[in-house]
TrEMBL record:
It comes from the Bacteria. It holds the Pfam family PhoX. SUPFAM superfamilies: Calcium-dependent phosphotriesterase. InterPro entries: PhoX. PANTHER family: DUF839 DOMAIN-CONTAINING PROTEIN, SLR8030 PROTEIN. This is PhoX family phosphatase.
Length: 603
């Protein structure tokens, strides 16, 4: 119980020191256990994980994917208005893969194999991407386990069939051989962070999707150049030796007579937020195009209010990219809410003015100001793109980055996760770093040239109304070495110490009491050492290091049960043989954190 003079956001534990150990470190009085490592069987025939790397592609489709990232716990009774902290659906993203660890003897390179890759290796790699839905339950001894045979257990992969929804659905620039009416696609890739919706579904973000496509055409369309699709792909999946359509589609060159004969438009079906309903296992994932197409890191919803629009925020994690907000056209009613609310609305992009004010700039062609900017830009060069206009609103959304350039948004230092303070309503975003920002490119919201350590920005919407088109912002904290100061007026509000130095904030989450959890994906050299998670009091800006990950990893993805007594923290791309010293392969895993006295984490 909380005594009357202790705020629910006070940070009660003793900070842990930095660490170089190949293990998880948490404060005294807390315990951890690795759970659901890559390869754990979770569905189908539950094929056993083989530490020698010989699991097949078909087996990987029934096992946990690799590179765990954003994660959410849905109480099993949520749809009935319940709040279970002992049973639920744990849903998580698998951002990318460690090819060396995935196969028995590493990956077979096309360059060493006559220009092709073994199809089953490719199948396995695609299956190690995507999303896992795992029904989990805590037994009376407090141990969490998978509910074997549960109908909710499910894998969604880089090859799962999906619908295109929202304004871009049916647009000619999404026509492919697979979907001549531009309404469907296959797969979701590079799913980084996520966001639970107010109606109990999960949105997975497609971040660095561009790397999975290859285009050998002499020139590429702006829908690819603005994202950096290259002439070869990250893992050469399009070169699978079976020649099957599911792999060939990743070659987005113009090789057929028309768009309906090839996959020149396949990349236009990526870059979205993908809605998955974990409580409806047979449901088809839905790509929600009204939220824009870019390098989506994740999404965070403002608390839904009966009869008001739904509002969510999403960052585009690339240097000098932007922060967006979507406001639905239709009002939210708890009884009827669903993904359709995300199909119609206004997408805005943020401008952070140097005086601490900010504006949400509409990207809707029906907005007179935006339309005038678009008209004025026709015939000019925007970035590297010779701009000849937008055909319609679908074209605007397909080229969201370009639209935001034209609108005059503020280029940020790599926006990663966002979080909304359940007590104050303030919105926080991590700006992880941007070593390419030069002195003449700084602005008040991104004030550091060569920003190697990042910062966290926050704002209050005007009138604390999330649909407002203006806001007031400030910088919550600058990350960095000991002595790094965050100054408000003439007062040093934060000066980092051994208890809280950190760099490259990435994951960000407010727990259900209002403590802010900050995860890092940065330099793991001295003085920071291994990546970590810290807890912050948003009112006082007290920050303490709570958790340090094993060697080489980033700490990304955090959620708890509703009572905040079990916390799930993801470890991505660990090294060596973490978490099992008897296994030669490193395995991404979810770390379960509990307090030994059964209390609230962080209190
Ligand atoms: Fe996948 Fe921006 O981190
Ligand atoms: Ca990552
Ligand atoms: Ca991230
Ligand atoms: Ca990152």
């Amino acid at each position: 119980t909380t005594s009357s003079n202790v705020s629910s956001t006070d940070i009660g534990f003793k900070a842990v020191p930095t660490s170089t150990a190949n293990e998880v470190v948490v404060p005294e009085g807390y315990s951890t256990e690795a759970f659901l490592p890559w390869g754990t069987p979770i569905t189908g025939s539950y094929p056993e994980y083989k530490p020698d790397g010989t699991n097949t592609g078909a087996e990987q489709e029934q096992q946990m994917g690799m590179h765990h990232d954003g994660v959410h716990f849905f109480p099993i009774d949520q749809k009935a208005g319940g709040n279970s902290s002992s049973e639920g659906l744990l849903v998580m993203n698998h951002e990318y893969i460690n090819q060396g660890a995935l196969h028995a003897n590493g990956a077979t390179k096309a360059s060493d194999n006559g220009g092709v890759r073994p199809a089953d290796e490719v199948r396995k790699e695609i299956a190690a991407h995507g999303v896992s839905v795992v029904h989990i339950k805590r037994d009376t001894s407090g141990k969490w386990d998978i509910v074997f045979g549960s109908p909710f257990n499910r894998r969604i992969t880089g090859n799962t069939e999906m619908d295109i929804r929202g304004p871009v659905r049916g647009y000619s620039k999404l026509i492919t051989k697979y979907s001549p009416d531009a309404t469907e696609t296959r797969g979701t890739l590079n799913n980084c962070a996520m966001g639970p919706t107010p109606w109990g579904t999960y949105l997975a973000a497609e971040e660095n999707w561009h790397g999975y496509f290859a285009n050998s055409d002499a020139t590429q369309p702006r829908e690819q150049t603005r994202h950096g699709v290259g002439s070869s792909s990250r893992y050469d999946w399009e070169l699978a030796d079976s020649g099957e359509d599911q792999y060939v589609r990743l070659n987005v060159s113009s090789i057929g007579a028309s768009a309906a004969d090839d996959y020149r438009n396949e990349a236009n079906t990526y870059g979205y937020m993908v809605e998955i309903d974990p409580f409806t296992p047979e449901s088809k994932p839905q790509k929600r195009t009204a939220l824009g197409r870019f390098g989506h890191e994740g999404v965070i919803f403002a608390p839904a209010k009966e009869g008001e629009p739904v509002v969510c925020y999403s960052g585009d994690d690339s240097r000098f990219e932007y922060i967006y907000k979507f406001v639905s056209s239709k009002p939210y009613y708890a009884a009827t809410a669903g993904g359709y609310l995300l199909d119609e609305g206004t997408l805005y992009v943020a401008r952070f003015n140097d005086d601490g004010s900010g504006d949400w700039l509409s990207l809707d062609l029906n907005d007179a100001e935006f339309k005038a900017k678009v008209d004025a830009a026709v015939g000019t060069t925007v970035g590297d793109i010779a701009f000849d206009g937008f055909e319609n609103q679908a074209d605007v959304l397909l080229n969201t980055r370009l639209a935001a350039d034209i609108a005059g948004a503020t280029p940020m230092d790599r926006p990663e996760w966002g979080a909304v303070d359940p007590n104050s309503g303030q919105v926080y975003f991590t700006l992880t770093n941007n070593s390419r920002r030069t002195e003449d490119q700084v602005n008040a919201a991104n004030p550091n040239a060569n920003n190697r350590t990042g910062h966290i920005i926050r704002w209050s919407e005007e009138g604390n109304d999330h649909t407002a088109t203006s806001f007031d912002w400030d910088i919550f904290v600058f990350a960095g070495e000991q002595g790094t100061e965050t100054v408000v007026g003439d007062e040093v509000i934060v000066s980092l110490t051994d208890d809280n130095i950190f760099n490259s904030p990435d994951g960000l989450w407010f727990d259900y009491n209002g403590r802010l959890w900050i995860q890092t994906d940065g330099s793991d050299a001295a003085p920071y050492q291994n990546n970590m998670m810290l807890a912050a009091n948003p009112e006082t800006r007290e920050i303490k290091r709570f958790f340090v990950g094993p060697q080489g990893c980033e700490v990304t993805g955090v959620v708890s049960t509703p009572d905040v007594k079990t916390m799930f923290v993801n470890i991505q791309h660990p090294e060596g043989n973490w978490p099992d010293s008897s296994d030669p392969r490193p395995r991404d895993a979810t770390v379960i954190v509990t307090k030994d006295d059964g209390g609230v984490i962080g209190a």
